Amino acid sequence: MLDIYDEFRNLVAVLDEHEIDYALCGGMAMAVHQRPRMTIDIDVLIQAESLDKVVAIAKEQGYKIRGKDLSFANGAVEIRRVSKIDTEAGDLLSLDLLLVTPALREVWDSRVESDWEGGTFSVVSRAGLITLKQLRKSGQDLDDIKALEEGDRDA
Is the pLDDT of residue 155 over 70? Predict the structure, then answer.
């Protein structure tokens, strides 16, 4: 059975080992910003020039299924998906690699460090996460924006 937190822990360790800059985003970043919710994938913002190296690293970690390239918000958000499957349990876990585009430069530049398990990892800021979710505007994104904005008022 695939454990999303173990997978994230391993991914962060390997990215740090290879000195690749990244920022956690998506559903897992919601938890960092005190608004936890269920998620079924790992979303990581990376620079486009790191893509080939990150895909190769992911492949070494078992992410051997290359998904279709995704683009939305008129190209402001570009996603490259790789997935792995646990054949015994039938679990599928996707790693969505969001590329830093000109529209996401401010989100990238505002990323922050978060403490975790005696170390740190990089995550998009609360404002950056809201920006990403405003670009997509799915039902889940709109719910997340509301929760993040309520968190701003609670602080």
Answer: no
